[in-house]
């Protein structure tokens, strides 16, 4: 964020350009915070933000059952029984609540075998693999093995999965790093899903940030339904899009973005 402000100061010709902040998934916690911080700087022509399937609360288990009901994955009867027996608390069911546990088990059976990130996609067992799960010797992946990856026969979309598998090779390539202007020595090996990074979770819920930003009049596009509210918040659905919608439907996502950024109806 500081770098962005410094860059604008060094390139004053872009100072009047409209600025939007965007992200997907876990960025649902961080993007609204960054947007709020940028809003404090009068130099920036801040207009709004975009989020794809954003995380709003770290404890999101309580929203999975209403989603499953809304998508027709569980019956009205089971949903109503879950509401009665669990009282809307599905992430921390008390062991003594036998009826709630029974209903939750029935719900789990209904969604068993579905891809949680994209319920219309065949269950592939791996949707965002980590390097250590892909190659036992990831530094020594030969061309023969790469060709095998690309030509697997399956109903699953392996073009996307293969991109995950090979991303560490691409981003650790010296020519790629040079093209991206990554200074030598500034970072070591790039690792996908690097959970070893040290940080502290200080904000567990971004809901209030959304409220504050909409109160200030900033536009927002959250693509996970299409509906626009008076507070300039638009929800949109990319049909057939998975968790990171642009990976599944890049053309459709671009069309959605182009219309929204141009203030056209979706």
Can you describe what's shown?
By secondary structure, the protein is of the alpha/beta class. 42% of the residues lie in helices and 9% in strands. The protein has 3 domains: 2-57 and 206-261, 3-Layer(aba) Sandwich (Rossmann fold); 61-111, no CATH class; 126-200, no CATH class. Strand 4 (227-228) and strand 5 (233-236) form a beta hairpin. The longest helix is centred in the middle third of the chain and has 14 residues, at 98-111. It starts with a helix and ends in a 5-residue tail after the last helix. The model is unreliable at 135-151 (pLDDT under 50). Belongs to the peptidase S10 family. InterPro entries: AB_hydrolase_fold, Peptidase_S10.
Give keywords:
266 residues, Rossmann fold, 3 domains, 12 helices, globular
Q: How is this fold's topology laid out?
A:
Blueprint: H1 2-10, E1 19-24, H2 27-39, E2 46-52, H3 64-70, H4 76-86, H5 98-111, H6 131-134, H7 143-150, H8 158-171, H9 174-179, H10 207-215, E3 219-223, E4 227-228, E5 233-236, H11 245-248, H12 250-261
Parallel strand pairs: 1-2, 2-3, 3-5
Antiparallel strand pairs: 4-5
Helix pairs in contact: 2-10, 4-5
